[in-house]
Amino acid sequence: MKFRDSRKGEKETVVRLFVSVFSDSEGKEEGKLLGQLARELFESSNETDLFNFVAEIDGQIVGSIFFSRMVFENEDAAFILAPIAVHSEHQGKGIGQGLIKYGLGEFKACGVTFVITYGNPKFYEKLGFRAISSEDVKPPFELSQPEGWLGLSLDGRPIESLLGNSSCVKALSNPVHW
Ligand SMILES: CC(C)(COP(=O)(O)OP(=O)(O)OC[C@H]1O[C@@H](n2cnc3c(N)ncnc32)[C@H](O)[C@@H]1OP(=O)(O)O)[C@@H](O)C(=O)NCCC(=O)NCCS
To answer: How far separated are the first and last CA of the chain, in Å rounded?
Structure first.
């Protein structure tokens, strides 16, 4: 197993992975939506605002994760982890946690302090994420599941240092994702 940055020519493979994983787990419509999100993240984000990592086994991409920049009113920045997918036949083998740990390691190395995610607390709490209040750290859109709003500080500064309204990349600037 190898974790690495995705390469330019791998966009379609990563998009197909998201379509297939989310179609299997949540139905065809969700698969289409997440495939579209992956495509838009690649096509509409500035290079410095987006990280996409993949997990590879025997030359095949079996998992992928996106992190994109969020900016707060006090000009502090964070990266939001969303979405992540592990091929249905390879789930439950530590690949998802491995991808997240790999991403966090890369961020630590380049001085990113805050990482946010929006998902299942049971999964992300294993990796050190903690529930955050959407009043303290404001999401760019109203959350349909506020219990899934989670954050992690990589240098001990409280995540509540992220002040005021926030904005996210264009691909995530759609209430359907929140
Ligand atoms: C969620 C997902 C990324 C996890 O990756 P994975 O490689 O299967 O997970 P790992 O093997 O690294 O971790 C497994 C652990 O997470 C837990 N876990 C896995 N998926 C979970 C989920 N959807 N909800 C809660 N816990 C989950 C397992 O219980 C397991 O816990 P354990 O280590 O204590 O036994 C993967 O299952 C997936 O792609 N699911 C479909 C798409 C999805 O739901 N993506 C997340 C929303 S963006």
So the answer is: 32
